[in-house]
Amino acid sequence: MKQCPNCGKKSIPLKWIIFNKSSSGSFIKCFQCSNCNEKIKKNKNFIFFILSGLPAIELVWILIIAFFLNYITGSLGVAIIGTIMTFVFLEYILEYLSPLSVADEAYCRDEMTKIGAIFALVLMVSIIGFLIYCFIVSPFVLNTGFCGKG
Fold first, then answer.
1. What residues contact residue 135 under an 8 Å CB cut-off, 6+ apart?
2. 64: helix, strand or coil
3. Most exposed: 15, 57, 92, 115, by fewest CB within 10 Å?
4. What angle do CA 81, 55, 87 make, to 5 degrees?
5. Please, which contacts does 43-52 make with residues 24 or more away whose CB atoms are closer than 8 Å?
6. pLDDT digits (tens, 9 = 90+) for 59-103
7. Counting Cβ atoms within 10 Å, is residue 4 exposed (0-12), middle (13-18) or buried (19+)?
């Protein structure tokens, strides 16, 4: 059990922290504290999220660990088993070490938060601006071809 960030009681089970599972066995994104009834979420460290957030990056880490273990042991079977064990251990350690905080309702329902909406709006405006520059301003106003290529 870990402490709730809101009330300070040890009411957050390790089963949810490591596996994102409730006591009934279903996967849940937020955990509701039994003491204060606040919804709790796990905050991902930004660097750890970058290093293990995408499947392609995880595959690169698996290959690096496998090559390293194969170089040390000289056995491909030991390298594969050691890689799987090392990777699973690292994933569980990262889940356990992630700090807890109080979640808002939009996060728990998988809806877009205010910060996410602002970021999406800025991204959409910059993409539309780039497309207007590339396909209208650059070829017709500046006469430099599409996206400034002559």
1. 146
2. helix
3. 115
4. 30
5. 43/98, 43/99, 43/100, 43/101, 44/98, 45/94, 45/97, 45/98, 45/99, 48/94, 48/98, 52/90, 52/91, 52/94
6. 888 888 888 888 888 888 888 888 888 888 888 888 888 889 888
7. buried
